[in-house]
Amino acid sequence: MARGGRRVLESVDLAIAPGRTLAVIGESGAGKSTLIGAVLGLIRPLSGRVTWKGEDLRTARPSLVMQEPRAAFNPALSLRRAVMEPIRARRMTLPKGRIDRLCEGLELDPGLLDRQPHEVSIGQAQRVGILRALIAGTPLVLFDEPLSALDAVTQKHTAGLISALQREEGFAALVVTHDLGYAAAHADEVVILRDGRIVETAPADSFFRAPQTDYGCALCDAALALGALERVA
Question: Domains of the chain: which residue ranges?
């Protein structure tokens, strides 16, 4: 896959099942943003296919939770209007009580949705972003560094809410992250991406217990040294 005449991703083969979380881990420039663009259908691969259950992935209409919560919203619109955008785009009828049920799962006061993006906290804005990503019941949700804008306590709490909703809703989650601690706690599988290529793929518990590549070992050692990852016995 190329951007600007430069090949960014090559021989990338991923598989993710409903209800599972796949974490794609890699340093800046590894090709993670290009991967998100390809999965969303914004970038066309030079070869290969992006599918969901054997069909073109665009029919599944994956959704995205962005890294910067407030930047994900039009500042001129209320949060409620923003949340309803996927419903309008799909010409769907919103099931009765769906917003209230998702707000309950995200520990959000539904009344917050009548505010503008700048009138809520960063943590609340990110949970509204998750609400928007889930509102239409898409089977695949992409998370682009979903916790990096939050403080440590809010990160842990929000990660737990995402996991609980995933168990309830059954969506597949593709998480692009630098946060090895998050991946260790919440991912089922991990893919290590470097210079546009996959260098290691493994179940999360196996990877964090015993990485099989020098690069995987270096990532885990660095995260352990920084306190971002606890040693797995």
Answer: 1-62+140-228, 72-137
Q: Is the dihedral of CA 40, 166, 109, 147 positive or negative?
A: negative
Q: In the numeric block, which tokens belong to residue 110?
A: 């539904």
Residue 28, exposed/middle/buried by CB under 10 A (0-12, 13-18, 19+)? exposed
172-186 as b/e: b if 16+ CB within 10 A: bbbbbbbbbbbbbbb
The pLDDT of residue 48: 74
Residue type, 124: Q
pLDDT in tens, 156-181: 899 999 999 999 999 999 999 888 88
Tell which CATH architecture fits domain 1-62+140-228: 3-Layer(aba) Sandwich (3.40)
Strand-strand pairing, 63-65 and 140-144: parallel
The answer to pTM > 0.85 is: yes
Residues 66 and 132: beta-carbon distance below 8 Å: no
Task: Quote the crossing angle between the two packed helices 79-90 and 122-134, to the nearest 10°.
Answer: 20
